[in-house]
Amino acid sequence: MKLSQAKTKKRYVIETVIDCFEKNTLEAMGFVKGMYVDILASSLLNKTLLINILNSTVAIKKTVLENVLVKEY
Amino acid sequence: MKIAGFLSSKKKKTKQIENNKLQKNYILCGNANTGKSTVFNALAHANAHIGNWLGVTVDVETKTCIRNDAIYNYFDLPGTASLEATSIDEQNAVNFLKEHKDFLVVNVCDLNNLRRNLYLTLELLEQGFKVTLLLNFKKSFFKLGGKVNLEKLSKELGIPIVLFNGKKTQLIEGNSVHMHSFSCAHDRHKKIDEILKNCDYVTPHKAYGTNKLDKFLLNKFFAIPCFFLTMAVIFFLTFVLVSKLFEVPLGYVFSWLDKGSANGFYQLVIFESLKIILNFLPQIITILLCINILENSGYISRLAFTFEDIFEKFGLNGKSIFPILMSLGCASIATPFSKGIADKNIRLKTASILSLFPCSAKLPIIVLFLSTLTKTYLAFYISLIYAACIIIALAFCLLLNRKYKSEPSNLILEFPALRFVSFKQVLKNIFDSLKSLISRILFVIVVVNVILFCLTKLNLITFLTIIPFALLSIFGFNLEAVSALVSGIVGKELIATGLSNVVLTQIFTPAALILFLIFALFYTPCFSTTGLLVEQFGAKQTFKILGFQFAFSYVLTCLVALILMPKQFVSFLIAITVVASIFVLIKLISLLKLNKMSKNGTLKLCNQNSCKKCNHNSCNNR
Asked: CA angle B178-B179-B185, nearest 5°?
């Protein structure tokens, strides 16, 4: 499933980062296969999500998350 | 080129002083918000600006230190997550690294985020850089239960490691192992995991940035009211509390200044200008203090997230909030911060609207004019003007959107941990801002007064103001007011100081006072901001924007004038309508001509998208 569809307060493992404009930034931030992602709050303000990744909190838009595929862990 | 120039000029200078000394060059690089500028300040005894948000450093900062054994050149780069840059500031960092491969790279890493920070380290080692790893935030790391074996880490990476220890930190140089290239990011992360496992790395048990306060600050319902509450507190402190506190002491200073300012016209101008600056100094300091607290606490990054969706509707993005908030202090200080925005059009729009926000130099104009109009609820009216300026700036942005369209931005933003503000750092930042602001104001006052003196002697002052006067006299501005506006192009503080020795009610009607205030707040940015815009976007683009801004402020003033003094303004409006109708008529005739030519077959109109003539893309006739 896409990371943008993930539900809040659950842990996911990244399956793929699909090639996109932000791929390099996403990969440098740790969005690579096998990484764990915590969705902190998907119901916040807008179409932006808060993700806890590699021990720091990252705000990232749903549009970008369409390029990250995850499965529930 | 800039850095090459700096190096050559520094080389010349240092050659004269220390002819036989060794040159040592250190590049400080690393992920954003890892404390590179703090390390730079400590190592080079520099004064680089420090804040708790991503993108504080946007250009390469340089500093040279001459010590007993050698000459040390330090370079502080903007933060970047990898060698693949997406924004201008990241590009600056990557380009600098690639151009100076022989310099020693001090890779500053956050111990709490080592797993992610080592990604850049591996990339640097793959490229063959000589690297020293400097680990920062050791206090919070060990306090929160983090563990790491530094000797093993150094062995695994094949590079020297230093723990940042304030000013006592000594950099260790050693040979770096040239690491083989990884085929993809996944392999690089796999290697990082292996390294961290071998050096017994334990991440701090308390996750970074997941502060309980965030649940409130980023809440769907509380985030925006929380921001407005913060702004209300700032305005209350600045315009009510501080104004009342300093009323009596400033009165004494002014009476003392009045005794000394009786001789000569130009002495009087300088003293009156000083009085204006002094009068608003407490408010300027309070605003700078509040912005610095917001900046250093980490709240400003949360605001970028909060405003992302709202700003997107106006063609901006969440990151625009950084320069916008800074512009409440000074637009010229804020302009370079727009470099952190990746999209060129969003960057241009953000930088263009910064001069529409009321900076500290505009504060004297607002207070001076409002206090002439009303004596009660002054703080409320000032806050109202601030709110109006924000709305007008966003409206201007909507107009710019028609020309500079941008795709919806893809926000990827890291939140720095919320932390208690270091008052030492805040005071240092305020001192630096005040020093540059006051020295600029004094310089501008002296230079402009000398120029004014020369122009008056040569009878050129009327010649210079004749066109602006023809344009602005319809609003009821006299020559003195227009001269103040002309000098205000250099620096906005000159508008208030230029009118300091006149009684405003004698030269303005109440309606003209309001119109002057509106026009003065928006008509052009100051010289230093214009220079920074030219540097970033080129002269052509900048002057296009400036022309548009001037027209926008003029039309805005006209609209208000129509409401405030309809009788006097109707004749002017008729004249404007006649001129506009002539232009429309000429345009219509040319269009009809074109149409006729196309029917005859003399002109081939393009059916493709983008031609300069018909606004279509990829036209073969261009």
From this structure: 145
